[in-house]
Design a protein that fits this description.
By secondary structure, this protein is mainly α. It folds into two domains: 114 residues, Alpha-Beta Barrel (TIM Barrel); 70 residues, no CATH class. It contains nine helices and three strands, in the order E-H-H-E-H-H-E-H-H-H-H-H. Strands 1-2-3 form a three-stranded parallel β-sheet, with no helix packed on it. The protein is globular and about 50 Å long. The two termini are 32 Å apart.
């Protein structure tokens, strides 16, 4: 089974992966280096949704240099007891780094276990039940960026994605009041 898994995309870890494991179904992780999860969030977002972008929050969390960020992000994914991961790479150096992480992996360090903790209760699970939005807003994306802000303490990174005008914020609140289908109590 091919599912998105990375340090900020963990929905599959809650129920889907344990169910697959209980049925003896292998898991192939995709998007280990990107915050994108589905067609709800696209490559049109600026700044980049790449986990090895030069964003100061990502550097603080995953490491100052690109190689450190790639290594930590891949180590998180490998720690999820998956069969394999599909890593989209752009350079030979990235391929070599990914291979090195896989070859040397012996488990997460206690420091990594600590930095990867996140409180995800009450946050959007990207189920899409809040759609369609009566205001044509991408509610899952808005909630996802809120989760980056709250659960992962990626405040500046999230703010860069959510520089909405006052009108868009009002429309988001109207949409939240008009459409409460989501299974969690996601704040809008």
């Amino acid at each position: 089974m091919l599912v998105p898994i990375n340090v900020v995309t963990r929905q599959a870890l809650e129920e889907l992966i344990p169910l697959a494991k209980s049925l003896n179904v292998g898991i192939a992780a995709m998007k280990p280096l990107s915050a994108k999860t589905s067609n709800l969030i696209t490559c049109l977002y600026k700044p980049s949704l790449s986990l090895f972008s030069d964003d100061p929050d990502l550097k603080r969390w995953l490491g100052q240099d690109k190689i450190s960020r790639i290594q930590k992000a891949l180590r998180f994914v490998i720690a999820q007891n998956i069969a394999t991961t599909v890593v989209g790479m752009r350079t030979i150096e990235e391929v070599e780094v990914a291979a090195d992480v896989g070859n040397k992996y012996k488990g997460l360090t206690s420091h990594e276990e600590e930095i990867f903790k996140a409180k995800l209760e009450g946050h959007c699970r990207d189920c899409g039940l809040c759609l369609p939005c009566p205001q044509n807003l991408n509610i899952p994306a808005i909630l996802r960026f809120h989760m980056f802000y709250e659960a992962y303490n990626l405040k500046n990174w999230a703010k860069n994605f959510t520089k909405a005008s006052k009108r868009e914020q009002i429309n988001a609140q109207n949409a939240a009041n008009a459409n409460r289908n989501a299974p969690t109590t996601c704040p809008l």
